[in-house]
Design brief:
The chain has three helices and two strands, in the order βααβα. The chain is α+β, with helices and mostly antiparallel strands and about 80 residues long. A two-stranded parallel sheet has the order 1-2.
């Protein structure tokens, strides 16, 4: 019974943006958005997703800030 177990990731949480207008008192995103509101480059996120897919990640969860504020969230979801 010396089988080695190989751990594998099944889910990755990908932060699409730090932009959020909700200002929830319990959330870190409001502070980040005030300091430096920005969205990452779409092509870079596609490369990240390609790498995750080739690594056999089964699920990618989009987080943020507010992921709905990311201009290409629909395109990235379809990708």
């Amino acid at each position: 019974m010396n089988e080695q177990l190989t751990p594998s990731l099944k889910l990755v949480a990908l932060h699409l943006t730090n932009v959020c207008a909700h200002k929830c008192p319990h959330c870190y995103a409001a502070e980040l958005a005030v300091k430096s509101p920005k969205h990452p480059d779409y092509d870079m996120l596609v490369k990240v997703c390609d790498h995750l897919i080739s690594s056999e990640i089964k699920e990618i969860c989009f987080l943020g800030g507010d992921p709905a504020t990311y201009p290409h969230v629909v395109d990235l979801s379809k990708y």
